[in-house]
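Board notes (copied after class):
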Amino acid sequence: MKRLGAILLGVMLLAEPSLAAPVGVLVEERARSDYADSLPPEGEFEVTVKDAPKGEVVTLAEFWMDPRSGKFLANAVLETGDVQRIGGLALITLPVPVPTRRLLPDDIITEDDLTVMRLPVGRVGAYVETEIDEVIGKQVRRVLTPGRPIQTQSIIHPLVISRGDRVEISFSDGLLDLRSPGRALSDAHEGQEVRIVNLISNKTVTGIATGEGTVEIVQ
């Protein structure tokens, strides 16, 4: 093994005076190659080496990695020509918005309530919010804990219409643009269906809550 390392080292040194690099950089290069196209666009590696090399590393002669756990083993070729077995973790992390304080049901989330942390991809499930802009302005459904990822089902669009509210009903079919007053028969969050009474015709209709006190009739 040492002979192999010496041969590799000799060839490289003929082409470049010094090829030593931080071992974490070399591990990340090989890890990215193993992940290939499955690496998330915003994914970054956090590399932890358990057995620190005893000298400058020129290259990794061999590299084995389990992409699911991030565990790796490698043969590090040192500048001296020696080969040292190293191991550790190469975890992919993603930027995720998390609360900076405890948020209670019905709270409206503001930018000051959030910070962005990089979390291992294994902690970021399919139902975790990853875009901070998709969280700001939402209403809390379930208690949110500081530093913990925000589950999609834990937040909702804020309530924009309450039962009994006077609302403006709008209808447009491309030719006609009609508006009339109405009264809500139920609560509604933005984007939700809501039943309303048209105060001019006294008929009950169903529309979509589009904002504070506004309802659109969709045909």
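Comment from the instructor: The longest strand covers residues 83-99. Residues 36 and 48 are 20 Å apart (CA to CA).
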